[in-house]
Write a structure and sequence with these properties.
The chain has 210 residues and is of the alpha+beta class. 20% of the residues lie in helices and 36% in strands. Strand 1 and strand 2 form a beta hairpin. The longest helix has 16 residues.
Amino acid sequence: MPRVTGPAFSLSACGSLAGKITWRRWHGAHVLEKRPTPTGPPSGLQTARRALYAFLAKQWPLLSDAERATWNAPADAQQITSYNAYLSYNLERWTRFRAPTQQYPATETGLINPYLFTGVQRGVRHVRYLTWRFAPNAQNQVVFFRSPTNGFTPDSTNATLFAYIPTIGPHFTKEHRVTAGTHYCRCYAFTDAGKWGPMITQNIVTVPDL
């Protein structure tokens, strides 16, 4: 449903109606247009950025007050909120294949304790990644990469899922909407300050169709 703050075309309206038409603002004007639809599947980079965006949105409430305060300066400089500065900075870093950071600027420091990416379980149009966190001070963030190509190199275009691993021990992380076929999977851990850990050994999984 569109959200209206006055009669349509008068004060302000935004959103979609019946999935057919959309009100939006464009250069200060109110515009009514046909709701845009994707022309094809998302690119690898789009998929990775969407996964990162979802991860960042979940992580923001978990940041300490001190970590959030570091985003005030870039936010003020751009005249945006601290949250938007956090999103913008990390999404831009990702285009250069830099790990997300919880504080500004990224120092790319910290100790990576071992993670063991031990396997992938298949399901109908989904996979479950099994990782082990060994130590209480181990970094608790990981990103999974997936490709149909054996021996692929992880980069900004083939990440499919970011995850937070809260406690010591084994953890399953589920990725939905995976196409049927053979997939090769890898994993990186990263620190709160945006430092990559070592790449974890490749795993292979064949996902069945419906």
